[in-house]
């Protein structure tokens, strides 16, 4: 069974990995570090969070945790293509399977599929950061105190990583003192959903635009991010990366 990478092209160098030894090492890295990975079916319409339980090199199998519920696992098993996305040491890892089967591992429900023949390893970067689309701006909502009352400040997202976000504060309302924390900030990630996060100010930069107006870019760090929210942020980053690579390669 021949498997193809999530990005769907053979021209992903230096992203594409074809060495079986290296692919197994990366998959074992995800397993050994107990990293959550996203399992996508129906073109990403359904996403399940799983983890790699075991790599059986002799049987040429990857064994992952099952989805919650028999019906969900049945839909996964019946899917024509299953994509997997995760992060290992802040590196994006993507691979896919043409078929997943229901199995059992150490007396617990599981899913299994052949070790992928190819895998995508995105470029290494500290908390891999990606710009958000300018055509459809995303808003990050900060609860701030204005004249003794709490108001929602809606700021445009500039970029995002699993470590935090950067926003534009045109009216310069945020307290940008390093260490200032804003709880219950909300960000609507397109195609993923609403996430509720605590953000701590890490840096700020005054910008002068081409039209002469000024703006302020504020870098914020996620604080005490839950595994569920981290998985959502991770899925959105991978979604943006897929869309960007599709545009670069002309694949839709």
Question: Topology, please?
Answer:
Blueprint: E1 16-17, H1 20-32, E2 37-41, E3 46-50, E4 52-56, E5 61-65, H2 70-78, E6 82-88, E7 91-97, E8 101-105, E9 108-114, E10 119-121, E11 130-131, E12 139-146, E13 149-160, E14 164-168, E15 181-189, E16 193-208, E17 214-223, H3 227-249
Core attributes:
single chain; 252 residues; alpha+beta; Pnp Oxidase, Chain A; Thrombin, subunit H; 2 domains; 6-stranded antiparallel β-sheet; 17 strands; PilZ_domain; flagellum; cell projection; nucleotide-binding
Spatial extent as radius of gyration: 20 Å
In the predicted model, the low-confidence regions spanning at least 5 consecutive residues are: 1-13
- Using the alpha-carbon principal axes, give the shape: elongated
How helical, in percent, are the residues? 10-25%
In CATH terms, the superfamily of the largest domain is predicted glycosyltransferase like domains
* SSE-based structural type: alpha+beta
Would you tell me which CATH topology of the largest domain applies? Thrombin, subunit H
Helical segment tally? 3
Mean pLDDT across all amino acids: 84
Strand order of the largest sheet: 1-10-7-6-2-3
The first-level CATH class name of the largest domain: Mainly Beta
Largest sheet: 6 strands, antiparallel
Kindly, what is the distance between the CA atoms of the first and last residues, rounded to a whole number of angstroms? Answer: 24 Å
Order of helices and strands: EHEEEEHEEEEEEEEEEEEH
Strands, count = 17
CATH architecture of the largest domain: Beta Barrel
How much β-strand is present in the residues? Answer: 35-45%
């Amino acid at each position: 069974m021949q498997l193809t990478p999530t990005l769907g092209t053979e021209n992903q160098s230096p992203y594409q990995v074809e060495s079986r030894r290296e692919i197994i090492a990366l998959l074992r890295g995800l397993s050994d570090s107990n990293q959550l990975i996203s399992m996508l079916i129906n073109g990403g319409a359904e996403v399940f969070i799983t983890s790699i339980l075991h790599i059986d090199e002799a049987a040429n199998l990857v064994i992952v945790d099952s989805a919650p519920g028999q019906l969900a696992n049945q839909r996964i098993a019946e899917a024509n293509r299953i994509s997997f996305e995760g992060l290992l040491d802040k590196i994006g890892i993507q691979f896919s399977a043409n078929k997943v089967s229901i199995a059992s591992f150490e007396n617990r429900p599981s899913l299994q599929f052949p070790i992928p023949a190819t895998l995508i390893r995105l470029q290494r970067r500290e908390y891999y950061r990606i710009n958000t689309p300018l055509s459809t701006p995303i808003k990050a909502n900060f609860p701030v105190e204005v004249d003794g009352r709490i108001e929602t400040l809606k700021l445009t997202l500039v970029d995002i990583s699993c470590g935090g976000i950067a926003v534009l504060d045109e009216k310069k309302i945020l307290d940008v003192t390093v260490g200032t924390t804003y709880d219950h900030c909300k960000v609507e990630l397109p195609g993923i959903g609403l996430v509720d996060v605590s953000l701590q100010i890490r840096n700020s930069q005054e910008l002068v635009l081409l039209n002469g107006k000024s703006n302020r870019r504020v870098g914020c760090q996620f604080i005490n991010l839950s595994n569920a929210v981290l998985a959502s942020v991770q899925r959105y980053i991978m979604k943006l990366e897929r869309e960007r690579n599709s545009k670069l390669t002309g694949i839709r």
